[in-house]
Amino acid sequence: MCGVTRARDARLAAKLGAWAVGMIFVPKTPRFLTASRARRVRAAIPKGVLAVGVFRDASAEALRRAVRELRLDAVQLDGDATVIRRVSGGPALPLIEPKRTDADRRAGRAPSEAARRKAWRRAAALGRRGARVVLAGGLTPDNVSEAAAAAKPWAVDVSSGVERRPGVKDRRLLGAFFAAANRLP
Description:
It is built from seven helices and nine strands. By secondary structure, it is an alpha/beta fold.
């Protein structure tokens, strides 16, 4: 689960079965965490659940400092090719998400259905070549089963699809998402 801004949401995600909890360190985004809020969220992530820091255009020093101070297990590097990389090494996991058009961004809209389906096909193609793909973007309790059946990802990632408002997860939606995701093969 990504975009976690509250300690209670991190605890709930872990209880429901999340294997990773993402904290966003991209300024001027709705789920951006200050250092003090990030420390509270990190403290709520139990042992055995990965603490992931999400960064865009961060310096190497900023990444090292965040990893050290927050004891991050992995970093997600957003850009043209978004990947999740374990701090301790190992292969990067590609994160496949649908692309939003400029019009979508300006209007605050989610990616189109066509963009989502294109991302699902891309994830499935990477998976057939042996990649462990994480599927993200536009996932909700209502579509995660269909998306996973089409894309065959190694894992799924959710943020806004389980929120009441940016950064505030909804307990009912979280429960429904994890119930649907945990039924996947």
